[in-house]
Amino acid sequence: MSLLIPDSGLLFWMVIVFGIVFVILAKYGFPMITGMVDERKQYIDQSLLAAREANEQLANIKSDSEAILAKAHEEQARILKEAVATRERILKEAKTQAQVEGQKLLDEAKRQIRAEKDSAVSDIRRQVAVLSVDIAEKVLRKNLDDEKKQMEMIDRLLDELTVSKH
Amino acid sequence: MRSIRYIGAILALLVVFLQEANAGEETDTGLKNRQVDVNEIVFGHIGDSYEWHITDIGATPVAIPLPVIVKSNRTGWHIFLSSRFEEENGEYKGLYIAKEGEYKGKIVEKDANGREVKPLDISITKNVAGLFINSTILVILVLGCARWYRRHPVEKEAPKGIVGMMEACILSINEDVIRGCIGKDYRRYSPYLLTAFFFILVNNLMGLIPFFPGGANITGNIAITLVLAVCTFLAVNIWGNKEYWKEILWPDVPWWLKVPFPMMPVIELFGIFTKPFALMIRLFANMMAGHAAILSLISIIFITANMGPLINGSMGLVAVVFGIFMTALELLVAFIQAYVFTMLSAVFIGLSRQEAHGGKEIR
C-alpha cells in the first residue's frame, strides 16, 4: 500500500520543480512558440491577401490594356475610313472640276472653231467672189466681142436664173 | 523480411547465451540456490530509493549515491550522501533505512521511547533526481525551440528538425485539444496544459529508458500525479465562472432533487473532487502497471534460471518477445496518457468556463 501514499519529500520537490518548470515554460517557452506560430500564420494570411490583390491588379491592368488596345483599333479604323472618304471626296471634286474645266475649254474651243470657220467661210466667199468676178471678167472679155454672142449669153444666163429660181 | 530474419538470429543467439550463462551458473554454488524475489525486483524498481541503483557486478551493487536531506526531531538538519549508510554499517547519526514495518525503505530514527519515527525527509531520492534531470531536459527542449524562434524572423523560414517536430506537437495539442475543449479564452490555460502535457510525456518516455538518466518511475508515483491533479483542480475551480458554480449548487434538475435534501448539489460537489482524483489515479496506475509488466516479463528469465537450460531458454525467448511488445506498447501509452491527462484537464476547465445554455431547463 506504500505505493498509494504520496511521499512527503517527493511531494515537496515535485511542487518546487513543477512550479519552476511551469513558470519558466509559461513565461519564456510556450507563449513564445505559439505567439511566433500565430505571427507566421498572420504573415502567411497577409501574403496570401497581398498576392490576391496583386493578381486582381494584374487582371485589371490586363483588361485595361485590352480596352486601350480595342479603342486604338477603333480609332485606327475610323481614321482609315475617314481617309478613304476624304480621298473619294477629293477625287470626286477633282473629277467634277476637271469636267467643268474641260467643258469650259471645249466650249471655248468650239466657239473659236466656229469663229474661225465663220471667218474662213467669209474669207472664202470673198475670194470666190473676187475669183468669179475675175474669171467672169476674163470670160466676158473674150466672148463678148460680138453682139450676138453677148445676147446669147445674156439669154442663157437669164434662163438659168429663172430655171434655178423655179 | 530481412529485418525479421535478423531479429530471429539475435533472439536465437540470446537463447544460446542464456544457456551458456545458465551452465556457468551451475558451477557457482553461491548463486545456484538463491531464490529470485520478483516482488523485491519489481517494487524495488517501481518505488523510490535513496541511491540510483544501476546494476550488480557479481555481488557488488553499482549505484550512484544521492544526497540525503533530513531534519531529525532530536539532532536537527543532516545533509549527507546515501553511500554513508554503507560505510557506517547502515546507521548514520541515529538515522537508518527501515528494513520493515510501516516505514519500510524510508529513513527513520528512534525517538526517546525507542519507537521508530520518520523525520522530516526531503532527500534527493532517485525519483527526485530523475525529476530534476527530466525537467532540465524539458526546459532545455522548449527554451531551445523558443530560442530558435527568437533567432529566426517569422517571414524568413519555418522550423525544421527537432524544432519543427516540437512545433507540430505543441500546435496539435494547443489547437486540437486545448482550444477544442476550452473554447474562446483557451489562451489563459494553454501554458499550464502544454507544460503538463510535455512534463508528463518527457517523464513517461524517460521512464522507459532502462539505464541511468532514465528508468526512474516518476509519473508512476502517486506524489507526482497528485501534484498534477491538484494543479488541474485549482485551474478548474479558481477560474470557474458563475455558471459553473450554479450548475454545482443549483443544477437544472426537478426541484425535489434539491429542496428537502440537496441530493444533486452533494453529488456535484463530490464530483469536483472525483474528477481530479480520477486523473491522478489514471496516470499513476497506467504508468506503474506498465513498468511492473515489463519488469515482471524480464523477471521470468531469472525465475526460470534454475529450471534447466531448455525451459530457461524458451521462457527467455518468450520474455524477450513480450518485453519488446510491452515496451513498444508503453511507448504508445506514454503518449496516450500524457494526451489523456491534458485532454481531460482541458475538458474539465472547459466545463468550468461554459456559457449559460439558455432556455432548455428541465422541470
Descriptors:
heterodimer, A: 166 residues, mainly alpha, rod-shaped, B: 363 residues, alpha+beta, 4-stranded antiparallel beta sheet, 61% helix
The largest interface is: A-B, 34 and 50 residues
Mean pLDDT value of chain B: 84
Structural class of chain A: mainly alpha
Give me the side-by-side strand order of the main sheet of chain B.
5-6-7-8
The number of strands of chain B is 9
Percentage of residues in helical conformation of chain B: 55-70%
Task: Give a description of the structure.
The complex is a heterodimer of chains A (166) and B (363). In chain A, 93% of the residues lie in helices and 0% in strands. Chain A is built from 2 helices and no strands. The model of chain A has no long low-confidence stretch (mean pLDDT 88). Among the domains of chain B are: 55 residues, no CATH class; 180 residues, no CATH class. Chain B is built from 11 helices and 9 strands. In chain B, a hairpin with a 2-residue loop joins strand 5 and strand 6. The longest helix of chain B has 44 residues. Chain B is globular. Chain B starts with a helix and ends in an 11-residue tail after the last helix. The C terminus of chain B is likely disordered. The chains are: A mainly alpha (166), B alpha+beta (363). At the A-B interface, helix 1 of A face strand 9, helix 5, helix 6, helix 7 and helix 8 of B.
Topology:
The complex is a heterodimer of chains A (166) and B (363).
Chain A: H1 8-143, H2 147-165
Chain B: H1 2-27, H2 29-32, H3 38-46, E1 51-57, E2 60-65, E3 67-72, E4 76-81, H4 83-87, E5 91-92, E6 95-97, E7 107-110, E8 116-117, E9 120-121, H5 126-151, H6 161-182, H7 190-208, H8 222-238, H9 242-249, H10 263-303, H11 309-352
Antiparallel strand pairs in B: 1-2, 3-4, 3-9, 5-6, 6-7, 7-8
Helix pairs in contact in B: 1-11, 3-10, 5-6, 5-7, 6-7, 6-11, 7-11, 8-10, 8-11, 10-11
Question: What would a concise description of this structure say?
Answer:
By secondary structure, chain A is mostly helical. Chain A is 93% helix and 0% strand. Among the domains of chain B are: 55 residues, no CATH class; 180 residues, no CATH class.
